[in-house]
Automatic annotation (TrEMBL):
InterPro entries: Methyltranfer_dom (IPR025714), METTL25 (IPR052220), SAM-dependent_MTases_sf (IPR029063). Residues 274-286 have a biased composition (Polar residues). It holds the Pfam family Methyltransf_32. Coiled coil: none annotated. SUPFAM superfamilies: S-adenosyl-L-methionine-dependent methyltransferases (SSF53335). This is Methyltransferase domain-containing protein. Residues 264-286 are annotated as: Disordered. The gene is LOC123102235. It comes from Triticum aestivum. Residues 3-165 form the Methyltransferase domain.
Length: 451
């Protein structure tokens, strides 16, 4: 898709916005021989991209009989806080696009080529963003409209919950929603809770077994009960709508590990290595699981996949004060006790993530007894909310499409499903290109790859 659009516009340079570990950038460079500038906020991602690019380059060189020059993505590290920042970084990088994968640390405040003014030293560009999070996708749209050098755009958005919203959140920059005049006229305010729903997708439920689905329901019940813990013991923190990360995968791994440990005790898995008794105690006395939730230096991103980053270590141990939480007497039956134990692990981990200190007075069993009769309703309620996800996502995407269509006849834009939603729930691609008055220009002969 990106290659077809780039060649139809006569562009040989693609700017991969929010490039992550560089998979798209490297495919465009090595497979399609396009010059690629990969922009990402993480210097670690740039390092991974550069290292892998060298390995791929050697692989291609070994296969070629004749000497061939391979294009390697150039990486630029920068925190993109606005469309002006993105435009400045793009034009700077293209104006000085010499050498291969020179990682730059950009403070984004240096003087840049004038935005919107034609500069013959800068090539025609295509902006591409595969799952560019939050406002980053919106900034791409604004740069496409304002920069003469940017001739086309291919954007697949993500993380609508991270969008800034007009009339709802304080921000010094232009909001990420709404951006079209049509959506602004409706004066509809979504709010963070509704934007969270836009990230849900029922397509992946098809692959869940009944047991996995019920475990998901348990996780949502634990989070709801955890909110009651915050309301009762940490009311000021509760009002901040805190995020404790994705605890669900950690708990599922704990369950799996315990099952494997029971098999080991029965002598069925002697050849496998498991956590020692000290590590097991850490998992039950209030710490995070000592088995890494993801590979070292990895975090879980919005698409429920693992992506490498350097934000925090998943093997960190919660402070000893957390371990002294009051769990109450053990007078529940076996099934209830198992769920309560998981809820306790969830809560202690969550409190640790939030940096809560002394929590000896927290009575988790009392909270759990109050909510356990209602936990069976949490799953269906969550499903009903999640079913509204595609509706909210469609509204957000239509806002972006209308913004481009409001630019007049000089821009043509389309919105269509590019991927299988079971593989990638964020599968809607927004494609736009600028039309020219010259009938000999390629845009008039462009055949849509999705037609």
């Amino acid at each position: 898709m990106v290659d077809a659009i780039a060649r139809s516009r006569g562009a040989k340079t693609v700017v991969d916005v929010g490039s992550g570990q560089g998979y798209l950038a490297q495919a465009l460079s090595f497979e399609y021989q396009l010059a690629v500038i990969a922009i990402d906020a993480s210097s670690h991602h740039a390092s991974v991209t550069n290292t892998r690019a060298e390995r791929i380059k050697k692989h291609y060189a070994a296969k070629c009989v004749e000497k061939q020059q391979f294009k390697v993505p150039r990486t630029v590290t920068c925190h993109v806080l606005s469309s002006d920042t993105l435009a400045a970084v793009v034009l700077d990088a293209c104006q000085d696009n010499h050498g291969e994968h020179v990682t730059e640390s950009n403070n984004c405040n240096q003087s840049s080529p004038q935005i919107g003014q034609p500069n013959h030293s800068i090539p025609q560009l295509v902006l591409a963003g595969l799952h560019a999070c939050g406002d980053l996708s919106v900034n791409m749209l604004r740069v496409f409209v304002s920069c003469e050098q940017v001739q086309a755009l291919v954007s697949v958005g993500c993380c609508y919950n991270l969008l800034s919203e007009d009339c709802h959140e304080d921000t010094d920059t232009s909001p990420g929603f709404p951006i079209s005049n049509a959506a602004k006229s409706s004066k509809l305010v979504l709010g963070k809770s509704i934007r969270d729903l836009a990230c849900q997708s029922a397509e992946r439920w098809r692959s869940l077994t009944k047991e996995m689905a019920l475990q998901n329901f348990d996780i949502h019940a634990f989070r709801a009960a955890f909110q009651m813990v915050l309301e009762k013991y940490f009311p000021e923190l509760s009002r901040l709508s805190p995020s404790i990360g994705r605890q669900g995968k950690a708990l599922r791994r704990q369950r799996l590990r315990k099952e494997m440990e029971s098999h080991l005790a029965m002598g069925k898995a002697d050849d496998l290595s498991y956590p020692n008794s000290k590590e097991q105690n850490m998992n039950t006395d209030g710490s995070l699981p000592t088995e890494p939730i993801a590979p070292k230096g990895a975090v879980q991103c919005c698409s429920n996949e693992l992506c490498t980053g350097d934000t925090y270590s998943t093997s960190a141990v919660v402070g000893s004060s957390i371990s002294r939480v009051n769990v109450g007497p053990s007078d529940t039956n076996h099934d209830e006790c198992c769920k309560f134990t998981l809820f306790k692990d969830f809560t202690i981990s969550g409190l640790g993530r939030l940096g809560c200190g002394c929590v000896e007075d927290v009575n988790l069993l009392e909270i759990w007894k109050d909510v356990q009769h209602f936990t069976e309703f949490i799953g269906p309620f969550w499903c009903l909310r999640a079913a509204l996800g595609p509706l909210v996502e469609t509204y957000v995407l239509l806002d972006r499409l209308l913004f481009l269509q409001e630019q007049g006849s000089a821009v043509e834009a389309s919105l269509f499903p590019l991927f299988d939603p079971a593989m990638s729930p964020r599968n809607m691609a927004l494609v736009a290109w600028k039309l020219t008055e010259d009938p000999l220009e390629p845009s008039h002969g462009f055949v849509r790859p999705w037609a």
